[in-house]
Amino acid sequence: MTLVILGCALPQYEVWWPFFVVLFYILAPIPTIIARRYSEDSPSSSNPCLELAIFITIGFVVSSFALPIVLARAPDGNPVIQPGACYLTLAGNVIVYLTLVGFFVTFEQDDVDYNMW
């Protein structure tokens, strides 16, 4: 989040359009969380609900990377944001989504018994 805020608030950028990726940060995990809650307990078969949720989540993730790139490469040579703000926003995206993946990987392992002693 710090990198996204820096991409918006630094004096040479001063445009808050890249901050809209925060909306994607909030929306991205919601479909997967809902689908896992209502998913079947059979891990061997395919689950269409979970697959649709993953597809929607990937759409949010791709959109959060595409938004700053499109804003930085506006037509007619008049970009909405500076390239530096785009790079800071993209770096913030990588960190946020790696954190979300780490969260899901960590809390997916329900069958691990830590009290083996």
List the helices and strands and how they pair.
Layout lengths: L1 H8 L11 H7 L1 H9 L10 H25 L10 H26 L9
Helix pairs in contact: 1-5, 2-4, 3-4, 4-5
Membrane topology: Multi-pass membrane protein
InterPro entries: Vps55/LEPROT (IPR007262)
Protein name: Leptin receptor gene-related protein
Question: Can I get a quick summary?
Answer:
Helix content is 64%, strand content 0%. It has 117 residues and is mainly alpha-helical. The longest helix is centred in the last third of the chain and has 26 residues, at 83-108.
Please write the string of helix (H) and strand (E) elements.
HHHHH
* Gap between N and C termini: 40 Å
Class from secondary-structure proportions: mainly alpha
Instruction: Name the overall outline.
Output: elongated
Helix amount:
55-70%
The proportion of residues in beta strands is under 5%
The total strand number stands at 0
Count of alpha/pi helices: 5
Q: What integer value in Å does the Rg equal?
A: 18 Å
Low-confidence stretches: none
Organism: Polistes dominula (European paper wasp)
Protein name: Leptin receptor gene-related protein
Subcellular location: Membrane
Main location: membrane
